[in-house]
Amino acid sequence: MTENADKLASSACSAQEADDVYMGFASRAEIAAFLKELEAAERGSRPHAEMLRRMLPKVRDDALHRELSAKLQIQESIESKT
Description:
The protein is mainly alpha-helical.
């Protein structure tokens, strides 16, 4: 490699080290507030598929994402019958 090529080479991406909120994911506080709101909607038998659709792209935790995705499928099934 030439000296100029060494200067132009980019360093490895460090995106995985960035804060979740910086990367567009919900903070723990946002998720906690959402889960309380979701629980209230479920207890009140209110439709909540749209809430889930808005939050799912912001959830980084795989287990929580799977759980919320399952809730969304159930809710969409219920809402499609009404």
